[in-house]
Amino acid sequence: MKTLTRTTTFLSEEVSELTYRRAMEMAASFLAKQGIEEARTDASLLMEYASGMDRTHLILEANRPMDDAHQSLYEAAIRRRGERIPLQHITGEQEFMGLSFHVTKDVLIPRFDTELLAELALEKVAELQARINENEAEAEVNEKLESEIKAEVNEKLESETGTKPNVKAENEDQAEAIVEKASMSRRDNGGCHKIVQVLDLCTGSGCLGISIKKLAASDIKVTASDISEAALEVARGNARTLGAEVEFVHSDLFQNLPGRYDLIVSNPPYIATREILELTKEVKEGDPMSALDGGEDGLDFYRQIIEEAPAHLNAGGEILFEIGYDQGEAVEDLLQKAGFTDTFVRKDLAGLDRIVGGKWCVEP
C-alpha cells in the first residue's frame, strides 16, 4: 500500500512533506535573499513564535510534518520579516535581563548593550543602600547620644543654677546648642531616608526601571518617566505583567518630577540627526524617531539632563547614561564641567564606549 505524499505551497514553492526543519531551512534562505543578516536565527525564533514550541521541543519535532495553522502563521511572519519589519514587532516581545518585555512601535526595542547599564545600576544600588544603612545606623547612635548629652547637660546646669523657670529655659537653650553638632549627620542624611530612590529617565518600554526594581537585592523605590504617553502605557503593562511596583510619570525630562533621587539612569536619544538616514530600515522605521534623534551632534539630551540633574539628586547621588560609541569623552566632559565628580567611561563587550557616569557631592 502506497503512502500518500502531502504537497503544499510554502513561500511560493511547492514542497512535499513540509516538516518543521524544512520550513526553517526554506525560511532562512528566503530571509538571506532579502538581506537579513541573522537569517537563520530569525527563522528559528519566528518558528518558536509561530509554533508555540521552545527550541528543545522544536528539535524533537523537527522531522514531523508541520501543522497547517503553524505553517500559515509562520509564513506570514517570515514574509513580514522579509519586509524588514523588526522581529520584535512581529513577536511582540523582547528579552532583557532575563525578563520578557512587550514592545510596540511606540517604544525603542531593548538592546543587549543596554543590559550593561542595568547591571551597573544594580551595582550602584547595592553601594548606595549600604551607604544609607550606614548613615541610618550612625544617625540612630547620634540621636541616642543627643538625648543622653541633653539630659546630662540639663542635670548639671540645674544643679549649678537651680530650677527657676527662666533659668531652666536658658539651660535648655544651652543644652540644645551643645548637641547641635551631634545631630548634624542625621540632618545631612535627610532624616528618614531609608531606601534607595531610583529614577529611570526616558523609560520607553520600562526595561531599565523594571529590571532594576525586579533584580535589586534590597527594596528600592523606582520612578520611571517618559514624554510619550503611548510608551508609558507599554511600560505600565510590562510592570503589571512582571509584577514590578514602579511609579510612572508623564514628563518632559524633569518637568513633572519634583523629587530627589539617589540614582538617575537614562538611555536618552543620542543619534546625531544627520546619521539617522544611515541607520538600517528596521531601526529608522521600526523605532520611534523621538527615541533616536539626539539633535545636531547627538548630545542635546545629555546637556539638558546634566544641567538639571543636580536639583534632583541627593548629596552623593549618582547618574548613569548609555551613550553612543564615540560620545564618551564629550559626555564625561559635560559632567565634569557641571560639577560631577568620580566620572568614568565604561566600555561594552565590543570594546566601545557604552556607559558614562558621575557622582553629585554638593549638598542640596
Describe this protein's structure:
The protein is 46% helix and 17% strand. It is of the alpha/beta class. The strands form three sheets. Strands 7-6-5-8-9-11-10 form a seven-stranded mixed β-sheet, sandwiched between helices. The chain has a two-stranded antiparallel ribbon with strand order 1-2. β10 and β11 (353-360) form a beta hairpin. The protein is elongated, with a radius of gyration of 29 Å.
Topology overview:
Elements: E1 7-10, E2 13-16, H1 20-33, H2 39-51, H3 55-61, H4 68-82, H5 87-91, E3 93-96, E4 99-102, H6 115-161, H7 165-179, H8 184-188, E5 197-201, H9 207-215, E6 221-226, H10 229-242, E7 247-250, E8 261-266, H11 281-286, H12 300-308, E9 313-322, H13 328-337, E10 341-347, E11 353-360
Parallel strand pairs: 5-6, 5-8, 6-7, 8-9
Antiparallel strand pairs: 1-2, 3-4, 9-11, 10-11
Helix pairs in contact: 1-2, 1-4, 2-4, 6-7, 6-9
